[in-house]
Amino acid sequence: MRSLEMLLVVVNIVLVFWILFAKNKPQRSLLLGFGVSAVILLVHGILDGMRWPMIPAYLMSALPLLIVAVRSLRSAKNKEQIGRKSLLVKRILLTALAVICSASAVALPLLLPVFAFEKPAGPYKIGTVAYDWTDNERDEILTPDTNGKRRLMVQIWYPADAKAKGKTQAYHSDIDVFAEGYSQMLNFPKLLFHSIGYVKTHAIENAAMSDKEASYPVLLFSHGLTGNKMQNTFQVEHLVSQGYIVVGIDHTYSSTASIFPDGHVAPLKMPDITSIAVLDHANKQWVEDARFVLDQVEELAANDPEQRFTGRMDMNHVGMFGHSFGGATSMQALMTDSRIKAALNMDGALYGELRIPEEGLNKPFMMMSADSSVESLNSPSEDSPIDMMKEVLPRYDHVTKGGNYWMILNKTTHLSFTDMVLFSPLFQLMQGRDVREGLNLINEYSQDFFDHYLRQQPFRLIEQHIGEYPEFTILQD
Q1: pLDDT digit string (tens) for 145-204?
Q2: Which of 78, 169, 321, 367 could cross-link 344 (Cys pair, CB 3.0–4.6 Å)?
Q3: Please, is 41 exposed, middle or buried when counting C-beta atoms within 10 Å of its C-beta (0-12, 13-18, 19+)?
Q4: CA dihedral 208, 212, 213, 218 (to 10 degrees)
Q5: Would you place residue 87 in the very low, low, confident or very high pLDDT band (cuts 50, 70, 90)?
Q6: Rounded CA gap, 369 and 357, in Å?
Q7: 313 touches 245 (CB < 8 A)
């Protein structure tokens, strides 16, 4: 709950119960109470923006004015005709209504909060810029248009100048579009996702790039199937604040939604998953997306028309990370693209056309998994077109070969690696641990991995914590 929302709710609850139980309620005091509440409501509307979970609190603001209006219409004679029994019933009903309204005013904005990202821990501010890139060499296979080419929205975050100021990037540019995608993805009413439209990031749009370092290593980010390039903002902002350039890809028609500068919206098209072969084949398009985006990034690094990235991207030190299907994409891209030097897969089942050789990948790789996901891999699949234990689990046999790492986080779920656990405190109840502590753990270990392999810094955490610990287990052959 935001500060002004909390203030409004507290003031209105106090006001309502004063009205119910105070013996003397002068009209002047009622009007004063309404005035205070109305001012807070007005400031909240201007600074924060009004949202539907606050409706009970908004209605409570009008109560003193309503009482004044009723008093003016009711004569003293009518008041005398009301019996004590009727007054008691009326008092009980109004008290019950006040309790329900107060509970709703507290619960709704708490369950559907406008959450805030933690301030990035690194020394750099964060700048961001978006690109609309079309791969004219590839047809768009996810639409009926036979003439369409593969078009991608890409977001680049980068270390910004310490004095950079400007408009901060919204988490989602058009919440109505994204609420529809989230609704389709999670099978919840879209109304539940509208509060996300008020979430802000720490990224400053079109900020000047930091001159602290001559160039910065580059990381590609691939979201999960039905996710989007913003879904790991908690992690992207942390890595950028530590001196990385992060390139986020929206895999068009497989993302929550893609909104292009010309207003075109590419909605989520849920795939028809009938077998593991369907996902293996679909992953090929995502790997090609990553290859194309990396081609475009190389062009920016060589000659950016806006001169922001020219000579500032360290293309000799490129890594990739992703969640779920994007995590699988990261591993496949690591195996097929020599430009990618290290990859991190966050809870992505190992879909794709290539398998890890018996001797390992021969390139730095780290697998992060939720304990619940590992449990699913080791359990028979029911009512699913894919038998995880028979068809997917064997693909993990050589994950740690060659000195690579598999980190299993305790008390986590598939969504624990994304911003979505911040959407509602209900996720924390489902998970059984502090979700922000979990996100911080992911940040620390992902940074340690890339710092070692892309910046040649000694390990601070991973090598020091091989084995079982209360919060996680790290496996290595």
Answers
A1: 878 999 999 999 999 999 999 999 999 989 999 999 999 999 999 999 999 999 999 999
A2: 321
A3: buried
A4: -50
A5: low
A6: 20
A7: yes
159 close to 125: Cβ distance less than 8 angstroms: yes
Taking residues 309-334, report their average pLDDT.
Answer: 98
In sequence order, which residues have a C-beta less than 8 Å from that of residue 10 and are 6 or more positions away?
Answer: none
Token couple for 291: 């290859």
Rounded Cα distance, 15 and 24, in Å: 13
> Which domains can be identified in the chain, with CATH numbers?
3-111 (no CATH), 125-475 (3.40.50.1820)
pTM, 2 dp: 0.93
For CA atoms 30, 36, 42, 44, give the dihedral sign: negative
From CA 19, how far away is CA 204, in angstroms rounded? 46
* C-alpha distances out from residue 155 to 10, 152, 289, 301, Å: 40, 10, 14, 15
* Under 8 Å between Cβ of 37 and 66: no
- Tokens, residue 322: 């992703």
pLDDT above 70: residue 82 = no
pLDDT at 80 over 80: no
Cα–Cα distance for residue pair 204/206, rounded to 1 Å: 6
Contacts of 185 (CB under 8 A, 6+ apart): 226, 256, 268
Percent of the chain with pLDDT over 90: 83
Helices 27-47 and 3-21 cross at an angle (nearest 10°) of 160
Residue the block writes with tokens 């098209």: 269
Q: What is the 3-state secondary structure (H, E, C) of the chain?
A: CCHHHHHHHHHHHHHHHHHHHCCCCCHHHHHHHHHHHHHHHHHHHHHCCCCHHHHHHHHHHCHHHHHHHHHHHCCHHHHHHCCHHHHHHHHHHHHHHHHHHHHHHHHHHHHCCCCCCCCCCCCCEEEEEEEEEEEEEEECCCCCCCCCEEEEEEEEEEEECCCCCCCEEECCCCHHHHHHHHHHHHCCCHHHHHHHHHCEEEEEECCCECCCCCCEEEEEEECCCCCCCCCCHHHHHHHHHCCCEEEEEECCCCCCEEECCCCCEEECCCCCCCCHHHHHHHHHHHHHHHHHHHHHHHHHHHHCCCCCCCCCEEEEEEEEEEECHHHHHHHHHHHHCCCEEEEEEECCCCCCCCCCCCCCCCCCEEEEEEHHHHHHHCCCCCCCCCCHHHHHHHHHCCCCHHHCEEEEECCCCHHHHCHHHHCCCHHHHHHCCCHHHHHHHHHHHHHHHHHHHHHCCCCCCCHHHCEECCCEEEECC
